Amino acid sequence: MRIGRIGPLIRLAGCLAGALSLLGAAPARADLVIGVAVPRSGAYVAVGEQVLRGVEAAARDINGRGGINGQTVVLDVQDDACDSNKAVAVANHYANSNVQLVVGHVCSNASLAASEIYAANGTVMITAASVAAKLTDRGFPNVFRVCGRDDDQAKLSATILAERFRDRKIAILNDLSPASRNLAAATKENLNRIGTNEALSVAFAASDADDAALADRLKEAGIQVAYYGGDAKEMGRLVRISAERGFRPQWFGTSAIATQEFATIAGPASNGVLMTFYLDPRRKPEAAAVVQAFKAEGVEPEGSTIYGYAALQALAEAGNFARSTDSRRIAETLHAERFALVLGPVGFDAKGDVTAQGYVLYVWKDGAFTYAN
């Protein structure tokens, strides 16, 4: 019934537009500015570049198909450095600029801080990489993510540790950063609940000297499996320094090392390192054309690249379905409908979490990661 009422209006609008075009006065639509908040400085630059690369590719494809509700997408890219205070400043910039749709942020602490501003202003925020459960558990109707949740990642990590390494000495490490600390705590809690206890739990400050001291401490304690939720740069350095000091445990990382930077820094010691990460969308048939386009440009769409593409794609699909760029209408549509994205056919639940498959286990080999058995 609703479509029936709208249909005549659309036909009338089309007739008017055609008449104006014949008169040489076709109506122009303003550009649609969409914010993109990613770290372009700091420890997580590599992940930020992945997300931005995906968003930029999606914007080109969306504009090539007519934009969102007929409006051309223009990106306002801001650097939050994965810092909570800078993220708030970026969110306020978007609010003051009347930007109502944002792809971002990358780090969970930045997303948590900025989302308060977006919630107050009715801005739709969709992240390609922030995994903190709290982000969507608060129930903001305008906050979404196309990636997984850290509590799901921690459950999988704990299950793998318990099933594969129950009889080995396990260490759980964190470098005091919010993401690393939260993942370590959640993994430990799930592991202990299963009935397996770690031999050592260590918080340390990330630096060359501390990495060497930590490697020696773990070696002396007879640690055989080391779980660590650090970023690609820090874990790569720790794995390399440990190997140089004759300590080669089974390393187990998280989605934070799903970038070539990890293997480059760790070198040959990266071989055999396990990692939990989202389902690799590059293997999805729905992403084949996008992946091929990236590779034709000499770019491997690793890590969060396709998730960045999916985040903007979801906004576009919702906007075109609703025939609106209004943030409230787009949020309602994201919650209510399913969309054909590069991740496959997905929707978003009441919290804003994507309904796509969650985390799986990978192993690094020869500078790349692939599914583990």
TrEMBL record:
Signal peptide start and end residues: 1-30
Keyword Signal: yes
Keyword flag Signal: yes
Pfam families xrefs: Peripla_BP_6 (PF13458)
Keywords in alphabetical order: Signal
Gene3D superfamilies: 3.40.50.2300
Family per similarity comment: Belongs to the leucine-binding protein family.
Entry protein name: Leu/Ile/Val/Thr-binding protein
